[in-house]
Amino acid sequence: MDFSQFLKGLQGIVGEQNVVYHADDLLVFEYDGSVDRRLPDAVVFPGNTREVSQVISLAYETGVPVVGRGTGTGLSGGAISPPGGIQVAFTRMNKILEVDTENRMALVEPGVINLHLDTRVRKDSLRYAPDPSSQKACSLGGNIAENSGGPHCLAYGTTTNHVLGMEVVLEDGSIVNLGSLARETIGYDLRGVFTGSEGTFGIATKIAVRLLPVPEAVRTFLGIFPDVETACTAVSAVIEHGIVPAALEMIDALTIQAVQNVSDAGYPDDAGAVLLIELEGLSDEVCEIGREVEAALWDTGATLVRTAEAAEERQQLWVGRNGALGALGSIAPNYFLVDGVVPRTQLARVLGRVADISREYDIPIANVFHAGDGNLHPCLLFDERKEGTLQRVMEAGTAVLQVCVDAGGTLTGEHGVGLEKKEQMPLVFSDDDMAAMISVRDSFAPDNTLNPGKIFPDGVKQAAHGQRTFPGMPV
Amino acid sequence: MESSLSDRLAGLLGGSVVLPVGEIEIDEITPQAVVRPVDRLQISELLLWASSEHMSVLPRGGGTRSGLGNVPRTADVVLDLGAFNQLVDYQPADMTATVEAGMTIATLQERLAPGGEFVPIESALHGRSTVGGVLAVGAGGPLSYAYGLPREWLIGMSVLGTNGVSTKSGGKVVKNVTGYDLNKLYAGSLGTLGVIVEATFKLLPIDPQNGMLLASFPTLSDSLAAGRKLIHSSASPMGCHSVTSGVSRRLQDSTQAASQDLGLGDEDTALLFAFFSGRSQATRRRLEEAAAILLAEGADAVQRIEGPAAKGLLRWITDAPPLLSDDSALVMKVSVQSKSSAKTSAECSDIVLFGEKPQQMADPGFGTIRLFWPKYGDIQSTHSMEPQPIMDTIQQVRQVVARYEGSAVVEQCPITTKTQIEVWGDYPDSLAIMQSIKNRFDPNGILNPGRFLGGI
C-alpha cells in the first residue's frame, strides 16, 4: 500500500477533516516539551475507541509505527513521532464521561485536560490529586503514558496510585480492559505496569481514575532562606517531625532572579532560596502541624516566613513557583530540564555537585524542584542558536544524571525516559533488567510498532530474557 | 534406586540447605524437597537447575497463605526464603527502607519503629508472614481504604528470574518513572514470575494518636450503610469494617478482646469497626464526629476505644480472616466498587451452604467482602463434604458479583472442590497478555505452576 492509499484509508475511518498530512500543518506536531524533533507523516484525530482501533489496525497492517499524542507538553520526547510514523492525537476525545461521587471515580477520555477534570470534580468537593506543573494543558492520556507526578504527589502519590482501570487499544487494533472499577482485581496488575509505559504497550482510550475528597483546610508556608543548603536543612527538619506535607517545593537564587525579572513575586532581593510547604487536612491538624512547620523554618535559619490559608492568598505564595519555568526565558531563550531524583538526604550535596557542573560546563543552572521527594529539576539555561551549545548542554545534563545515580538516585522522577534519556538507561539498569522490561512490552506489543525507539538504548539486547540460557551467575 | 530429589539438591546446593519436608504440604500435596538457601547464588542455581529439569519450585515465606491459588500442577521443591531476613538499608530521613524478602512484617515494623516510621502494609499473622509473601499475594487489610494495597508503597525490587539472573526494578527513591514499573507486575503475581529476594518501600511517620469506634447495629446492612456515611464524612476514618454476629461472637471469645464489653445484642447484631489516627486533637475530633454520625445512622451503641486496646482490636480484625477460616468450609473474597458493597453483601447474605448463611467481614470504603460458610454440622474433615453444593454456592456468589462487575476469589474450600474449580473466577479479557508475560518470564512453567488464573 502506498502512502496516498494509506491516507485515504485513514480518511475513510475518521473523515477527511480529521487527518492532517501537509508539511505546514504538521509543523506543530514536530515537537513536544523536550529538545527532540521529528515530523510525523500524518496526524489522525479519532473521535472514539472504534476509530482509534481501526486507525491502529490499518497502520499495523501497513507497517506504519504509531505514537499517541495528548497535548504535547511531555518533557522527554515521548510524543515525538517515530521515523515514518503517524501520530494519533486525542484532541477530539476530550469528554468527561462520568463522575461517580458515590464511588469517588471519574471515567474520562484520554484527551481530557488534567485541570479540567480537577475543576469539574471540585464542584462535588472532590479532587483529582496528581497535578503536574503543566496541568492546565496536559492530558490524562499523556499522564497515564508518563505516570506523571506533580507537587502534591509527595502526599498522594503519582498517577499510578490514582488509576483504577482503562480501556486500551493494542498495536493490532484489538481492545482490552485493564484493571477494574473495583480496587482489587485478579491476575497480574496490567494497569499498573501499563501506567508509565510511555505509549509502547498500547493506547488508552478510556481511563477510570480515583478521586479524593477536598481537604477541610489547606495552609501554605513560604520560607525565605539565605541559600539552598540552609533550605535543605529545613526540609529535613520538617520530615524529622514526622510531617509529610502535601507539597514541599524549592526554588534557588537564579530562579528567584528570573521570577523577579518578569513579575514581582514579593521575594526579598537577598533571597537565596524559597521553600514552599503546603499542609492539608482537618483544620485542627493543619493548625497544630502548621505551628511545628513554622517553628522548624525559623529554627533552621529562615529570614522570612509567610503563611496563608485563604485560596487567593495561597495562590499568591505559589505564583513564583508556578511561573518559574516560564520566567527562565528572561535569562536564556532555551532550557534543558533534567528530572533526576535522589534520596532526600542527598539533596544538599547533590545540589552542590550540580553547581560544580554549572561552573565546569559554563552553563547557568536554575533549580526548581520537588524537595519533598528528592526530585530535582535543574534547568540548564542556554541559547540553541549558539553553535555547539546544545551538545555541551546535553553533556552537562548527563553529568548531572550521573551525580544523581551515584547518590543512590535515578534518571527521571516524573518526565519519563522517552528519547531524551534512553541512552542513559544503562547508568541505572543492566541489560538483564532491561531485557525483563522488554519482555513485558513484547507481551503487549510483540511487533513493537507503538512508539518504537523510545526508553531503551539503541542496540540493547532485544531477546526475551526468560528464553536465554545464562552461563554465568548474577548478583 | 534413583537418589531422592533431596539428595540431588544436597549435591547441588550443599547438604545444610536441604531441610526435612516435615509437615509442609500445599493443597494436600507433600513436596519432594524443601530447601532453605542462605545466599542468592544458591537460589539462582536452584532456578537454573529446575528450569532445565522441568522441576516445579514453590517459593515460601511464612506459609500463612500457602492455600491461596489453584491446586499446583506439581510441587517438587519448596523454596523457603526464611534465611533472607535482613534489613538492608534504612534511612529514617529518607523515609525508605530496603529489606530482604524473608523478614517478617512484624520484625520489619519493629525495626522501623525507632525511626518513628512504619511501612503501611497490613498482614494477618504478621509475626509469621513475610515481606516477600505479602508482596506475592498483594492484598491489603482493614485499613486498605487509607493505605491501599502493598503496590502503593513498593518502590523497588530485586527478583531472581527462572534463568537464574537477578534483575531489579524501580529503585530507592520515592518517585521514579525510569523504565517500566515492573514492581506493579510482581506485586500480586503469586510468585509466578520470579523469586522476590529484596524490596524497597516508601514509609510513613507513625501517627501520635490512634483510636477506634465500635458500634453495634441491628443488621449488617445498617452497619454498612453507616460505614458508607462515615467514609464520606469529614471524620475521615482510616478504614471501616462491618462484621456479622458470628464474627463478633468469635471476637468476644478471643482472649485479646476478653476485657472489652462489645455490647452484643441478639443473633442478628452486626458490629462496625472504624479506625482513626493522626494528631491528638484532630483524632479526638474525628472520633467525636464519627460517633455522632454512627448514632444518627441508627447504631444501638457506640464505644470509643483508644490506645493499646484500639491497637489490639485492629490486630484482631487484621488476623480475623485466617482465624475464621479455620472453622469454615468455604471462604470467598469478593471485591466490588465500594458503593456496591452494601448491596453485594446483602445479596450474598442469603446464599446458603449446608443450610447455613455466611458470616461476613465487609469493608464499605474499599469494597472488599469476605464470606465464611461454616463447616457442616459435626463433620470435622472437609474431605467428606460433597463438592457439588459448594460449587453451587460459589457459582451463586459469582452471579451476584458479576452484576456488580467485581471479582470473587475462593480463598479456601475442600480439596475435593478445589480440584474442580478455577479459584480466581471469571477471566479478564487481558488473560492472553498475562499468559504471554508468564511464558516469557518462566518459559518452562516451573514457578508455582497452575496456581494462578488461567493455568498460569
Architecture blueprint of SSEs:
The complex is a heterodimer of chains A (475) and B (456).
Chain A: H1 3-14, E1 19-20, H2 23-26, E2 42-44, H3 49-62, E3 66-69, E4 86-89, E5 96-100, E6 105-108, H4 114-122, E7 126-127, H5 140-146, H6 153-156, E8 163-169, E9 175-179, H7 190-194, E10 203-210, E11 212-213, E12 217-225, H8 228-240, E13 247-252, H9 253-262, E14 273-281, H10 283-299, E15 304-308, H11 311-322, H12 324-327, E16 334-337, H13 347-361, E17 365-370, E18 378-382, H14 389-406, H15 431-444
Parallel strand pairs in A: 2-4, 3-4
Antiparallel strand pairs in A: 1-2, 5-6, 6-10, 7-11, 8-9, 8-10, 12-14, 12-15, 13-14, 13-17, 16-18, 17-18
Helix pairs in contact in A: 1-3, 8-10, 8-13, 13-14
Chain B: H1 5-13, E1 18-19, E2 33-35, H2 40-53, E3 57-60, E4 77-80, E5 87-91, E6 96-100, H3 105-112, E7 117-118, H4 131-137, H5 144-147, E8 154-160, E9 166-170, H6 182-186, E10 195-202, E11 204-205, E12 209-217, H7 220-231, E13 239-243, H8 245-253, E14 270-278, H9 280-296, E15 301-306, H10 307-325, E16 328-335, H11 341-348, E17 359-363, E18 368-374, H12 387-403, E19 407-412, H13 415-418, H14 431-441
